[in-house]
Amino acid sequence: MLPHRAPRKKGRVEIIPMIDVMLFLLVFFIMITLQMITDKGLKLNLPTSSQAKMLPHPHYLVNILTDGSVVVKGKPMDLTALQQMLAGDGDVSKTDVTIAADQKVPFQDFVHVMDSCQKAGVTNIGIATKASA
Question: Which residues have a Cβ under 8 Å from the Cβ of 73 and sit 6 or more positions away?
Fold first, then answer.
């Protein structure tokens, strides 16, 4: 008599781990996409410069309006709030800030914003200009 063989079981595809992997990929791509969205800033009449260069995308684009008010990521804020936001960013030595000021902004307002950035510990500060023709 032949030995009795156990019936072969069919292989199963487990769906739960695949769903977990798909959700992980979805979250990953959403996070990457959010990092790629640029902060366009406000429409300002920027000063021109013959030496303007393209800078890498900054962490923060600080806009100074003609009345001297400061806007970051669409939110108006005072200089103290700006300094606290930048200081709370983690490693401020790696934080990039670009200051975009309208042509008509008094230079003193520009200096105040720059001082607030430096008080927060930011050392990578760029100045937004338009390239002259």
Answer: 39, 60, 61
Phi and psi angles of residue 15, each rounded to the nearest 5 degrees, phi first: -85, -30
Query: Could you give the dihedral angle defined by the CA atoms of residues 117, 123, 126 and 127, in that order, rounded to the nearest 10 degrees?
Result: 50
- In whole angstroms, give the CA distance from residue 77 to residue 85: 10
Pairwise CA distance, residues 126 & 95, whole Å: 11
Overall pTM > 0.70: no
Task: Give backbone dihedrals phi and psi of 130, rounded to 5 degrees, phi first.
Answer: -100, 145
Residues 6 or more apart whose Cβ sits within 8 Å of residue 23: none
- The torsion of the CA quartet 40, 67, 76, 81, rounded to 10 degrees, works out to 120
Residue pair 104/115 in contact by the 8 Å Cβ criterion: no
Q: How many residues does the chain have?
A: 133
pLDDT tens track for 35-82:
665 555 556 566 666 666 665 666 788 889 888 889 988 889 999 999
